[in-house]
Write the structure tokens for this entry.
Amino acid sequence: MARIAVGGFQHETNSFVEHRADFAYFASHRDRPPLVRGPQVIEWLSGGSYALSGFLGAIGSGHEILPLVWASGGAGGIVTEDAFERIVGEMQGALSAAMPVDAVYLDLHGAMVSAGFEDAEGEMLRRIRAMVGTEVPIVISLDYHANVSPEMVAFTDGLVGFRTYPHVDRPETGANAASVLRELLVRGRPAGRALRNLQFLIPAEAQCTLVEPSRGIVARSKVLDGDIVSLSYLAGFPAADTYWCGPSVAVHAWTQAAADRAADALAARIAAAEPDFVADLLSPDEGVRQAIDLARGASRPVVIADTQDNPGAGSSSDTTGLLEALVSAGAEGAVVGFLCDPDAAAAAHAAGQGATITLDVGGRHGPQGVMPFRADWKVDRLGAGGFRTTGSVAGNMDADLGPMALLSVGGVSVVVTSKRMQAYDPAPFHHLGVDPALQRILVLKSTCHFRADFEPIAEKVLMVTAPGGYLSDPALYPFRKLRPGVRLHPLGPVSGPAGRKAAAAAD
Ligand SMILES: [Zn+2]
């Protein structure tokens, strides 16, 4: 029987949005559990849809599980120094109390940036490694959007990434991490480690694993195969301004030669596919025009992805570009989900169901040029915001989005929430009596996760770039820390001094 410490601390950091992820944010219950400690970790995560849930289900009953702390912040602005130190401090404290341990498993994201540490996971793992010494295996699971640093590979013994985007394999990833950890308990720490960081960024819109080239690349990821302990492709999160931002291949193997060989082979395949990472994107007016045309005579909803206001990439989830385009085009049977505006939700609750109120909705957090949308809104439906998720990305979890309201103006309705949630799950619609399958046009604030549950019911999916906190073209971000020579989108201009030279030459 082994003593296995488990925990997690996740955040996908968009360095370019203004708000900060503080301790209270991590501690609050939203579309994910609040920060949980000790036995609460098992209570909240067992049977759920996170990697740790899958790990707990797969590790087997022959081991003693020592839960430390688990917190997930989703995505947003830079993590405050206070939040990072308190949560990592709690993790260290709980680990210290649990020592000695035979192994450690951490359920991480891989794209967290804190005010103090650009490579927040690298720093966290450095501290955990320093505590457990050189003999104890550390296995981590990472989100597909991880920006992997050399430290994250050096301090660990197995690194297992999601193989899907939309992320429908989180528990399976945790189960794979459990298999790796069990093997390491028998054979000890592996000798080989390799990391290959690709020299171009991939916009999230072009990372979807339902289609090529990503589908064929993730199919090469594996665990416990011959000399390989774990081999993972991570697509990267391009809105995190870090030195190691971008796609990578991370390998742990029983020999260094095997690690290098496997990493080189997969990295070469990804490099060769660079021209194939493309996505078709439309302006809001063009997207709405096409959606209205397509919806005529269609029996299923036309889905518009409001990709740049995806809270899952750190956006505010309150921009109004598509709402404005729908109303001014006179769209009928259109529903926008989910727009976070606690003030509008409170005003709707104060007015009551059936009331009509003049109200500013959304547009309170930029970016520049985005304004609240003022209209005479009808309050169609109110909800307390507590429900259980039902979708395939993060289903079977208790969610609390605070007071919610369904507001409508003409033929356009908006699902208003008090806490941000990406439109990856149908439950918030049903909470307000909206059946998404019966709408003519569905606007979803999401980049790719919506595809898991909404593409199967859609007549067609249109990707639209209304202004938002996440930019679908990483070349538009003012990177300061990214290593030089990285192409800022596939086949695009390069970062750093070389990039500035190229721009100057083009003037
Ligand atoms: Zn992700």
Remarks:
- Residues 284-464 form one domain.
- The first helix runs from residue 23 to 27.
- Confidence is low (pLDDT under 50) at residues 500-507.
- The two ends are 66 Å apart (CA to CA).
